[in-house]
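Blinded run. Sample ID left blank on purpose so nobody reads anything into the name before looking at the predicted structure. Input follows.
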Amino acid sequence: MRQSISKILLPLSVFGFMLSFVLMLRRVEPFYTFFYLISWWTFIPALDSWLYMKGGESLLLEKPGVFFSFLVPLSALIWFIFEAFNLRLHNWHYIGVPSNIFVRWPGYFLAFGTVLPGIFLTANALEKNNVFPKNEFSLFFTEELPKSFFYGCTALGTAMLALPLARPEIFFPCVWGGFFFLLDPWVAKWSGKSLLQEWRQKNFNRTLQLLLAGFICGGLWEFWNFWAGAKWVYTLPSWVVPRAADASPQRMFEMPVLGFIGFPPFALECFVMTEFTKCLKDRAAPAAWKLGWATAFLFMAWMCRRLDLHTVFSYG
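Blinded prediction complete.
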């Protein structure tokens, strides 16, 4: 059954993307405004179907319940957390978003909900194609991280997340790495899929795949955003985007070229934040887990309002 679905879903998704691209170029609505959203929600089922047909790790077809009830909401939650940081950093803002709140707010959720699936499916595709294969001669450690290393990493992660809030004009890049150092030691402590533990095992394949997946997805994020009517633009400090009168900013699409450096470590953060959440789920009582998600959805609704007030600069 799933094999048949994948054979239909793959060409259908590709056709849907091609059609939306043509209609976007003609500025036909809603394809122009929602081109970014449509692009990801055709890319994800297309890549997932391809992975399923090739025997790779599928997220949508093999685990649809987990995909829609956990991965997509968690993806939205994680990006809303970074949106909360941006209320202080002021590194990007949105233009041309729908004026109708009943379209705009679900649009936020659906757009942010593609972040984790996009990164993880891209990493799975790299693994399926033997890009950075696993080291079969790894040493497998069972002991915990040394306490000094554990506390050192968590202190570094805390500092990397606190400094941008104190001096955003200088330390804003630290946001794209802080959660990795803060949370991965806890994932290791709780016997989750810790990248730090994999490094101790001399296994770097997952890390390298995630770094490359982050770079690839970063390119897709910027490319598809560039063409969309509802989009983000950047307002970064002058040391990232030169303001010299005789020099135009060096950008690729909307992103200053130096900004692409942040996408690979962001992918590591996404992986670690996901594994940290899975560890919390395994350790939490069912009632506490439900309360946590209820709180998360209230936070996301509150952030939708914050975006409307502080991050959205124009409506389409």
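Unblinding after everyone has recorded impressions. Residues 67-311 form one domain.
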